[in-house]
Amino acid sequence: MNDDAKDGRDDETKLIRKLVRTFHLDARERRRLPNGRARKSLVLAAIAEELEAGGWHPAGQRPADDFAGGLIERLADGRCRIHWKSEVSMLRYELDAVGEFASADEAARTWLRAMFPRDIDGVPIDGEA
Q1: What is the mean pLDDT of residues 119-128?
Q2: How many domains does the chain have?
Q3: Per-residue confidence (pLDDT) for residue 127, from 0 to 100
Q4: Which residues make Cβ contacts (< 8 Å) with residue 65, sequence separation at least 6?
Q5: Please, are residues 81 and 75 in contact by the beta-carbon 8 Å criterion?
Q6: What is the pLDDT at residue 7?
Q7: Least buried of 28, 51, 69, 104, by fewest C-beta within 10 Å?
Q8: Which has the closest alpha carbon to 70: 54, 81, 55?
């Protein structure tokens, strides 16, 4: 593999990590993605890396926080939980369910399919989520 191809792959990985962390890429960053798309395999890998590093995805969020959607928790044994919450009235959120998963990959696939089935902030996911 030549250095240009490696640099392009590294750039793509960094952009996907940012997209997974912030749920946003600016127009210039989007143009740097191959075909303007986020490869599903890289999205799932970035979520798994975040879980490995800090135990939660999205990082910085916890079940007691106000949010609508899912929050992945990585347990010490490698299993994961997804805490699902919804807005029940204006700015009031309640826990709907907690799902158990055997691995970070299984939890990430479930979370991605529910939260971003086609795209993240308009960046299409290349591969069926």
Answers
A1: 91
A2: 1
A3: 86
A4: 71
A5: yes
A6: 52
A7: 28
A8: 81
Q: 59: domain range? A: 3-126
Written as one string, the DSSP assignment of 37-70 is -EEHHHHHHHHHHHHHHHSEESTT--TTS--SEE
* Element spanning 124, H or E: strand 123-126
Alpha helices (H) along the chain: 3-22, 27-32, 40-54, 104-115
89 DSSP β-pair partners? 92
Separation of alpha carbons 18 and 32, rounded Å: 13
Task: Count the alpha carbons within 13 Å of 98 in the hemisphere toward its beta carbon.
Answer: 7
* Residue written as token pair 């826990």: 95
Q: Residue 107 CA to chain centroid, in angstroms?
A: 10
